[in-house]
Amino acid sequence: MSSPATVLAVSAKDTPGIPKLPRDEITLVAGHGVEGDYHAGAFVRHRSRAAQDATRPNLRQVHLIHSELFDDLAPLGITVAPGQMGENVTTRGLALLDLAPGTRLHLGDTAVIEITGLRNPCNTLDAVDERLLAQVARKAADGSIVRKAGIMGIVVEGGAVRPGDAIRVEAPAGAVGAERLQPV
Q: Could you tell me which residues are beta bridge partners of residue 97?
C-alpha cells in the first residue's frame, strides 16, 4: 500500500534566485501564485522569459518538486533540501512528472494548482551542486532532454498550504494518459 500524497515542505522568497526559504505556510492566490514570492504574478516573471516578452501569461506561478528526486540524488553524494532548487511546494508520494497537462492538484483545504508543464532547469542549480543540472536535465539516447526538476503550475483556487497537507489529484477531463508534460 502506497503512502498518500502529501506536502512535505513549502518555500517562498521575494527576490530572484535560489534557494527559496522554508516557510510554515504559504498562501496561494488565484491567477497570481504564491503570495510574496518573486515569481508570482499574472504575467511571466522569470527573468529570461520576461526579457523576451514580459506580456506573456505566467504559466510558472508555482514550482513543485517531488522529494523522491532528493532520494535519487543522495547516493550520488548530491544533497538537496526542500526549497534549494527553487520550488514552492515539495511533495511526497506523488509521481509529479507522470501527470498530464491540465491535471489539478488540490492542496490543503481549498488551494488548487493546475499543471502547465515541466520545469526547464538551468545552470542556477550549479549553486546547489555543480553536478545537479546534469542529473536533472539528462540527454536521452534519441537526443531529447529528460527533465526531472519538477513541474510548474498556475493557481486556480487560492488558500493556505502547509507541510503535512494532503494532495488530491484531479485528472483533466477527457485525459487518456497519452499527453506528456512539455517544458514551460
A: none
* Rounded CA separation 49/53 (Å): 6
Q: Reduced to 3 states, what is the DSSP secondary structure of residue 47?
A: helix
User: What is the C-alpha separation between 63 and 34, in angstroms, rounded?
Assistant: 10
* Cβ atoms of 181 and 144 closer than 8 Å: no
Tell me the pLDDT tens digit for each residue of 153-167: 999 999 999 999 999
User: Which residue is listed with cell 496561494?
Assistant: 28
CATH superfamily ID and name for 6-170: PK beta-barrel domain-like (2.40.33.20)
Phi, psi values for residue 120, rounded to 5°: -100, 95
Rounded to whole angstroms, the Cα distance separating 178 from 184 reads 18
Which residue's C-alpha cell is 498530464? Answer: 100
The x, y and z cell numbers of residue 81, run together, are: 533540501
